[in-house]
Give the backbone structure.
Amino acid sequence: MALPLQERAMETDSAELVRLTLVEGGAAPSLVNALIPSRPLEAGEQYRFHFDMTKCIGCRSCEIACNEQNGNPADIKWRRVGELEGGIYPNVMRTYLSMGCNHCLTADCLRGCPVDAYSKDPITGIVLHSAEACIGCQYCVWNCPYSVPQFNPERGVVGKCDMCRERLLDNREPACVNACPENAIQIESVNKNEWTAEHSLADSPGMPPSGQTVSTTRITLPEKSSVTWLDRVDTGSIALEHAHPSLVVMTSAMQAAFGLLCGLLLDRELSAVSLTLLLFVTVIAINISIFHLGRPAYAWRALKMWKRSWLSREVLCFTLFLVTLTVSTGVAWASLLRPALESAVTPLALVAAMIGLAGTLASARIYLVKARPAWNMMHTPLDFVLSAFLMAGPVMAVMQAPAVWLATRLQAVGLAVALPHVAPHPRAVALAAILWIANQITRIARLRGSANFERHASYNHLRGEQLWWKVALSWICAIQAVLFLLAPMPWLSLAAVSAAVLLNRYLFFVSVVPLSMGLTFSSGSHGRAAS
Amino acid sequence: MKKRATQYANAASEDRARMQPLTFLQRVQRWLGFDIARTQYRYGKDARFGYISESRIADTWTKTTCGYCSVGCGMLVGTRNGRPVAARGNPDHPVNLGKLCPKGLSEHLMIEAAGRATTPMLRRGGRGAPLEPISWDEALEVMVSRIGSIQERFGNDSLGVISTGQLVTEEFYTLGKLVQLGFRSRNYDGNTTLCMASAVSGYKLSFGSDGPPGSYADMETADVVLLIGANIADNHPILCNRLRKKPGQVLVVVDPRVTKTAMMADLHLPVKPRSDIALINGIAHILLRDGLVDREYIREHVEGLEEFVSFVADYTPEAVSATTGLTVETVEKVARLYGEAKSAFIGWTMGVNHSTQGAHTVAAINNLAMITGNIGRTGSAPFSITGQCNAMGSRETSFTSALPGYRKFDNAEDRKALADLWKIDEEELPTARGLAYPDIIEAAVKKQVKAIWIIATNPVVSFPNLNLLKQAFETTEFVVVQDGFYPTPTMDYADLVLPAAIWGEKEGTYTNSERRISKVNAFATPPGEARSDFDIFLALAERLGVKDRLFPGWSSTLDAWLEWQKVSAGRMCDYSQFSWQQIEDEGGKQWGGERLYGDGQFPRENGRALLHCVPCLPFVEQPNTEFDLILNTGRTVEHWHTRTKTGAVAMLDAMSPNAWLEMNPADADRLSLRQHDRVTVRSRRAYVRDVELRITGIVAPGQVFMPFHFAEQNSNLVTLGAFDPISREPNFKQCAVRVERSALK
């Protein structure tokens, strides 16, 4: 399908005709100077935004126009204006960035999406998002280096700038282009191959490097001498990120299940009763995970993109983990009646453990995204595995009593159940705790020493008045868990270890500072007001 | 001001989810994700504006004029089933050619926002008791009888009336007659005195009459545009696209702060506060020295040259450099630019007006235009860019600082002409203006004014030195506040509240900065029992028994328009040439044409414009060791005045949710303050606390800047109650303060 714009352009030489901006559209021709391409796209080209920083006066009409165009709520802005500033009075400069989606050539939002809700429009190159396909997992929000996709809690799905594609199809310019009183925003065509080779015109102070996803937005900067001064003004007011409580609980519980399975394997304690309790923990964890989604009913769709998305792979692994675990448990019960089956339990459990490890690593891999530098470190997978081992001990200790109780009941009804002996090795647990804390300390030290703005900002969050005591508390809880285990006070140990891991995971989510375009000085207080 | 809940289109996502009445089943569906609010987020095609959110598709588009600033942008407001759903720039309107600023683009959201005044309210139990809803009948009765009894005891002038720049011209005209001839008080003024009175006075000093002589088009065609104390990028954003269009045009911005507008400039002159007069005189000095003046124009049309030449002789580039902080080269360069330009335009706003020397500064600016003949020609004008949407309408019709139609109180001919038009006894017309706004407040403190009627303005946020104003309210017996919003901070002091219709709910005209009369139309009905200001004025006239005499047979603003046409006929501000329909169809019409004074004839006795010798005096409250910083106040693009309107638009409010204080890094270092610290700004009068600190190089060391929009952090607690002796405009721009970290509450 060719755009009407293209068809018309091919039929006539009139530049007037193919110009999208119509008088009725809200901008008179006398004000408009090539706001949209005056020739059709050629092979290998796509549309892109051009933002002229030298024209922008920071009036923010584009932001309002965008929300009016899309009927969005006041706190969700598909186009955002940021401020940059630098210099010494009176030789100072304050300029503005106005950005929608950059319609990247290698869009990370698209690659990460587990349900294929994103597509790159074959005609225009616009990165499109389907609200119908979206399940609200928000993985794209984490992946985009510009924080472009935004989750709308009212709808349970993400949304983003689509360059007003339907307006373009209709020979009209996008709402922001239409609204800008200084004509600082334009639509252009760009040759994709040439741009891939050379895209430095997409770079600007206050914008993450364009190379990561090959942003297509061309930015006209003020003359060079002043640009070196310009810097973000929102750095002093970066708000904490969303805590994602269901993910805090889900990741921790899944790791506990995986750790427990490893512990039971090491302990050679794969009785039907222990496996049943493990299965119980796993089922709860998996069910909690769907509460993270904006649309829990469509959780199953997350399996779709397993060939591409780490989120799909995590879901797949944990689903398989659940299946093998269920089979293992079933076989363990069946072996009570047919002892011959007993030899199958350990191999099955081993398979489950392998899948569990894969799942834990896939889960960690989700967070290894370039757009979230404080997550994108080896400490994340280390933490996930060490948390599994750390929790295994206290959970096993707690399981002992109910397992024995259940086993005696079963013996009473005549089943040949062995009395379980689930006992963690305190030294192993102590070692796990030491490694777990060491991993945290190393991570924080590295964040502190990092020259990367986002990582260092994460460190500032962690040492800030809101969070520092939570960091300390989580470490104290980890040590306390070991001490309680030695006491032995298994329930207190479980409580302590849960507190340690949950707090740490909470900190992991809230303290991350995503890559983003620089916003306004007041954007932080806005964020605080909104949350 | 508490955040207000509001309608769906104007709500944040969490609020939206909450405000929909859902059944249990719908709730479950929403929670599971079967329901993603498809209906609310559906797109459709507007017949006129194309593909857009279905929520913004209109069945009717009403042409009107924006109700915020004086640029006077033409708008189309879309309504569906009688409710406003969209606002667009009118592509055919010559002022804005389809463009709007963020306030205009969201103006339709303001109409149905929560916080509108819907019923008259009376503090029945006296001061300290709550306001209680009452009927209109009772409200009008209370108002007329209370004011009547006060006037009986203390004289007619014991009523002070403070109006606004927000009414339609027809309402200003009606109100003026009602106050002066109905209530018979001379003590009537508008909050326009807080805004552009200095421009009015300055024009009168130089040219003998008010009336900005140029047009916006002149900003496009001028070779040199000199903006003095005018941050149009924040305050009049739609004017900016007139600039940077003509190749080779030079934009010079004079402002102590490196504003958004200063950053657009080819040449920014970071003058010291209130040294603009020295700069202007210095430019005149160089122009005269180098012969860059229009001798013929001066000979034919200007008087006072001799005295002026000897006066500006002292303003040598060296002296000016010392006063302004600019280099000698810069002063020379600017003078040459201005003098050599074929056409030069000077625009100014509050940096000039908000000063104890405001009127004289305007006269000094006019001097430059006069000696170079940069007036009445294409691209040339000394041009006051006004504040409110209809400040000009009030300047021409309102019967405050002049008789309607730019007639003078002290001119017997003018009085007679007006009395004849109105068929009243000439004796009824006052021979001098009554008290100006700040003097009404002062007279209230002195217990000379005993009743105050405030219309569509919010002095508790906008008047300088708030504590004096509070004292005025407390000593006044009866305070009436008539406004479209409830509650406003001023209503804390009201004995009676009258709910009024606002922009979008009434019909009439606004006149913008370039004298363009534009049509304002209604597309919504006032909420609850709110009435248009016009209806309220007529109802009061009826109660006073003056309706038949002053407003015979009037029922709508059209009647006022028709009479005003007769009253203005033949005057400089002649409205008799155009009909409402013509104004609406043609995107407004400028009275006086594109430019005034094209013939070089000025409305002074000898027809010549007068050069004034304006000394550059230090501003009133100089910093010292105790109060070591100079506080400057101003605006931000997202908000309008005291935020009664823009605070109700959730997006605008979120963009700029609180006040801030700009401080240079050098001062912040010295005071050990950090970015985002909460600080207290303290002057000799009072303090304002909990202001977010913004450390930035855009303000000079020794100066701080604060926006004046916020009731919560009210800059006018600390500003100075010093006023221009001629215009009575407050000196909002400079006062001495110190800044300290706010103690935790």
In short: The longest strand of chain B covers residues 687-695. Residues 537 and 684 of chain B are 41 Å apart (CA to CA). DSSP finds 28 helices and 28 strands in chain B. The longest helix of chain B spans residues 136-154.
